[in-house]
Amino acid sequence: MSERDHSVHSHTPRAARIGIYAILVFAALFYLTPLYVIVITSLKSLQEVHLGNLLSLPLRPTFDAWREAWSSACSGATCQGVQVYFWNSVHLVIPAVLISTAFGAVNGYVLTKWRFRGSDLFFSLLLIGTFIPFQMILLPMAWVLGKIHLENTIAGLVMVHVIYGLAFTTLFFRNFYVTIPNELVKAAMIDGAGFFTIFWRILLPVSTPIFMVTIIWQFTQIWNDFLFGVVFTSGAIHPITVALNNLVNTSTGVRRYNVDMAAALIAALPTLLVYLIAGKYFVRGLTAGSVKG
Amino acid sequence: MGKLSIRNVHKTFGNNVEVLKGIDIETSDNQFLILVGPSGCGKSTLLNIIAGLEASTGGDIHINDRRVNDLSPRDRDIAMVFQSYALYPSMTVRQNILFGLQIRKVPREERERTLKDVAAMLQIDHLLERKPRELSGGQRQRVAIGRAIARDPALFLFDEPLSNLDAKLRVEMRDELKRLHQRIQTTIVYVTHDQIEAMTLGDLIAVMNDGQIQQLGSPQEIYDNPANLFVAGFIGSPSMNFIPCEITVDDQGAGLQMQEGDNRLVMQAPDHAQAALRERNGQKVILGIRPEQITHKRVSQLDEADTRLMTATVDIIEPTGPDTLIFIHLNDTKVICRVHPPEAKQPGERMELLFDLAKAVFFDPQTEQRIA
C-alpha cells in the first residue's frame, strides 16, 4: 500500500501536486468552517455571541454554556439539560449495536459457509430490507410495539433498531465472509470443529475490520436516529437527538445560541469518538475484499 | 493402514447434471492412489465425497471396512491437504498443527510429542511460532501436510496440493511426498490434473474423464496398455501419436496404409495385432505410437521383429536437451518422433526413421476403445 502511494507521488508533476493539495485544503476548510463556528460559539458567553462576530475567537472562553446544556437547559417543560437523554441514547445504542452486529455476523457466516437451499433467495430478500425507508415501517412497528407492551421503552427502541439494522449488518458480514476461502471451513470440519467452534476459532479472529465497519455504521445510524426516537418514545425516554431538537425549539425569550451549540456538540461527540478510535479500520474494512490479509 | 473402497458412487447435481456415473475403486493397505483427469472430470467431487464434505447420490464409501456414508467428516478418521493449504490465518504454525488434536481433546503430553515428531519430520521446527502469512509457499505446504500427519488418520486426502508451487519446488515436494508416504505407511488419495505427478507419485492410478473411471491400474500398466484413446492421449508427454490408417490384408498379413508426402506405402502390422487387424480389412483404425517408439535408425534394432524403417520429411525440430523431437506428417497427421540429438536432420530434409511397433496400440475410431 505505502509503496504504491509513494510511487504515485514521485511520478506526479510538482504543479499538479500543488493543485491537488490546494483543492484538498479548500475542501477541508469548507467542511470545517461550520464546525469551527459551532465550537467557538459554544465557548462564548451570550453577550459575546450577540456582538455578532460569528468567526472571531471567544474573548473570554468559558464552559458555562456546556454546563448549562448538560445539566440545566430546558427542553419542553423540563429543565435538566440533555444529560438524561444522553444516557438514554447510550442505553439504547450499546445493546442495539451489539445485538444487531452479533446477529449480522452469524447471519453472514451461515449465508456464506453453511449455505442451504434457498439461501441466495433469502439473501436477496434481505437486501431489499436495506431499501425500506424508515417512514414505511412506522405504523406497523408502533402497532407491534403496542401488542408486545414495549411502547415508549428503551427496550422497544432497541428492538426496532436491531430489526432494522439486521439487513445492513448481514450484508456487511456476508460480503466479508464470502472472501474467506471455504477450504478453511472444510479443513476445520475435518479437524473436528463444529458450527460455533469454526465461527469462534477460525472466522472471528480475522473479522476485526468488518466488525469495526459494522459497529461504526450501526453506532452512527442509531445514535443519530431522530425519526424512530421521536415516534416511538416520549418525554423522559427520548434519545438525545430528539431532546436536542426540543431544546433548540423551546422558546423562552432569547435564543441561547451558545447553549444550543454546546448541546449539539455533546450530541455529536460519541459518533466523533467512535470514528477517531475505529476510523482507520473503516476504510480498511471496506476494501478488505480486495486485499487478502 | 487405510483400506479404501469406493463402490458404485454416483453424484448428480440439481437438474440431472451427472458428475459421477458409478465409480468403483478398491485399494489395499498403504497405497498411493491418484485420481487424475482434466478439470471437470469429477475427481475433486469424488475426493469431497470420500471426505464427507459432499454427499453422494448413490453408492458406498468404506474406510478400513467401515461404511462411512453417514458419518460426518470429523468421524471418518481422515485428514486432508488442500490446494490453497487452508491454514488458519489467525493461528501460529504450532496452533494450526495442534488445532485438530485440541478439538479431539488429546492429552497435552501426547499433543506436544506429536508436534515434536511432525515438526522434526517436516523440518519446520523453526517456524512453529510464525503465522501462515509469514511463510513462503513451500513452507505453508509443509505446515499443511504437518497438520494432516499430526492427526494420524486412517486415510490422507490431497487435493492438488502442489499446483500452487513453482516448478522447481513442485519437483522437490513430489520427492518428499513419496518419501513421506513410505514413512507413514498410510493410504493416500491424491487428486491432480498433472499426469506427470500422477505417474511419478502413484502406485495406483485412476484416470477419470466425464464422471467415469477410464482406467484403473499401475502407472506402467496405464502407460503401456491404455484402455482407450482418452487414457492413451492423457498420460505421457509429449502425447502419444494417433495416426488414422486403413487396413489392407495380403498374403503377408495385415498392413497399415501410410501416406507420407507423395509416397504411399504399406507398413506391416506388428505380430500382437495381426489377429485383431485381419478382421478389419479395408476399415480404418487408429494407430497409437509413443514418440520414443519412433527414433533414428539404429542398426542394432533392425533385426527385431516389429521394427519398420521409413523415410520422412522433417517438418519442425524441437531440441529438449537429452532428446530432440522431430515433427513429421503421416496420413495428414502431425507425428512426433524422439531421436538422439546428433542424429536429428534439419527441417525440410529427409530422414530415415525406425518405427518400433512392438508396443504400438490400436483403437477403433468410432468407439475409441482399444482393439489391439
What does this structure look like?
The complex is a heterodimer of chains A (293) and B (372). Chain A is mainly alpha-helical. Helix content of chain A is 71%, strand content 0%. The relative contact order of chain A is 0.14. The N terminus and C terminus of chain A are likely disordered. In chain B, a hairpin with a 2-residue loop joins strand 4 and strand 5. With 372 residues, chain B is of the alpha+beta class. Classes of the chains: A mainly alpha (293), B alpha+beta (372). At the A-B interface, helix 9 and helix 10 of A face strand 6 and helix 2 of B.
List the helices and strands and how they pair.
The complex is a heterodimer of chains A (293) and B (372).
Chain A: H1 2-11, H2 14-42, H3 46-50, H4 64-71, H5 83-113, H6 119-129, H7 138-147, H8 154-177, H9 182-190, H10 195-203, H11 208-224, H12 227-232, H13 240-249, H14 257-286
Chain B: E1 4-13, E2 17-26, E3 32-36, H1 43-51, E4 58-63, E5 66-67, E6 78-81, H2 93-103, H3 108-122, H4 137-150, E7 155-159, H5 167-184, E8 187-192, H6 195-201, E9 204-209, E10 212-217, H7 219-224, H8 229-234, E11 241-250, E12 253-260, E13 263-268, H9 271-278, E14 284-289, E15 294-296, E16 307-313, E17 316-319, E18 324-330, E19 333-339, E20 350-356, E21 361-363
Parallel strand pairs in B: 3-8, 3-9, 6-7, 7-8
Antiparallel strand pairs in B: 1-2, 1-4, 4-5, 9-10, 11-12, 11-14, 12-13, 14-21, 15-20, 16-20, 17-18, 18-19
Helix pairs in contact in B: 2-4, 3-4
Given helix and strand content, the structural type of chain B is: alpha+beta
Range of strand content of chain A? under 5%
Distance from first to last alpha carbon of chain A: 12 Å
- Biggest pleated-sheet summary of chain A: none
- First-last Cα distance of chain B: 38 Å
Average pLDDT of chain A: 87
Envelope shape of chain B: elongated
Number of strands of chain B: 21
- Give the helices and strands of chain B as they follow along the chain: EEEHEEEHHHEHEHEEHHEEEHEEEEEEEE
Strand order of the largest sheet of chain B: 6-7-8-3-9-10
How many helix segments of chain B? 9
- The percentage of residues in β strands of chain B lies in 25-35%
- How many strand units of chain A? 0
**Amount of helix of chain B:** 25-40%
Order of helices and strands of chain A: HHHHHHHHHHHHHH
Spans where pLDDT lies below 50 across 5 or more residues of chain B: none
Structural class by secondary-structure content of chain A:
mainly alpha
Largest interface: A-B, 17 and 23 residues
Radius of gyration of chain A equals 24 Å
